[in-house]
Amino acid sequence: MSIRTLTTRELNRATLARQMLLERAPLTIPEGVERLAGMQSQALSAPYIGLWTRLQTFDRAEMTRLIRERTLVKATLMRATLHLFTAADYLRFRSTIQPALDVSLTAVTGNRDKSGFDPAVVLEEGRAFLAETPRTFADITAQFSARYPTADIGSIRYMLRTQIPLVVVPDGGAWAYPGNPKFTLAETWLAQPIPQAPALRELVLRYLAAFGPATVSDAQTWSGLSKLKEVFEALRLELVTYKEEGGRAEYFDLPNQAIPDADTPAPVRFLPEFDNLLLSHAKRTRIISDQYRDRIFGSGNLRISATILVDGFVAGLWTVESAKKTAALVIAPFVPLAPADRDALTEEGERLIRMIDPEAKTHEVRWKDV
Prior knowledge:
Layout: E1 5-6, H1 8-18, H2 29-35, E2 39-40, H3 46-52, H4 60-68, E3 72-76, E4 82-86, H5 87-109, H6 119-132, H7 137-147, H8 153-163, E5 166-169, E6 182-185, H9 186-190, H10 200-211, H11 216-223, H12 229-235, E7 240-244, E8 250-253, E9 269-271, H13 293-296, E10 307-310, E11 313-323, E12 326-333, H14 339-356, E13 362-367
Parallel strand pairs: 1-7, 12-13
Antiparallel strand pairs: 2-4, 3-4, 5-6, 7-8, 9-10, 10-11, 11-12
């Protein structure tokens, strides 16, 4: 039996469908977070905006309540970056992601001077220090600088962050979490231990449900884990495969997932900073043209801009400007857009800016044209 070849537009439409970007989904907030297999959360507002753009019904206050009630948690997970997960998924996958955190620790601190402290002792002391009360990284710096005056404190901070399961503690801020966060032990916050058994098989299946069809390299890019080929091979008989158009890549997918037609209409959408749709494939042309990558990704992916989707592909950037009780959403397309797309983005943008800054007296959408 011949293997179907997928075009870039078919990959685009399939991924948008999984991401709830072809049609907003009638899911609850926790269901939406789990459908997405977690949400990148370096920017405080990002998960709020990411769900607003994907769910039929989104209530900002409800999301904040779920965070404060510990149904949703923010923690260091995929690619050693901050993600918002349901508590259930955090417990399910935290140990599975640990090898990626180990690799990140080596990559960041491998060439640094490790003299002046014993890692095993510092981890024990760090756990005890964080168990006493939630701590900021400034607190950790002060504590361990006094304890180990000749040690590289950056290495100690990163080791504690990646080797001890920690969650960010919410506060009364506008987006639930503070800009200078405090961390506490995940087991304390969730009142249960972290299961040690890895769940690699389930993690791969959840990835495909959210981002497929995808290659082994795609899954490794998203998770930060290596050597996932063995997991995919073990799952091969349970999955379907496709070929890359004009290339050699092999895409894997769940058997019950449809591939929408390449001409399926894709409505305009606003994506927040750091949205995982832009970060979860080794080859990103299914959503971003190569000619626009440098406009979106900062050096080392330290900043990933908020973007607009037009016809399913990234077509520009957007920002928020607030002054004198006026909140404006500013759209900067990469190329001139059709009037119908401009009208749709203006309408969608007006709704979004009202969600972002409900206290403003005036809300507007502005254009920064090419």
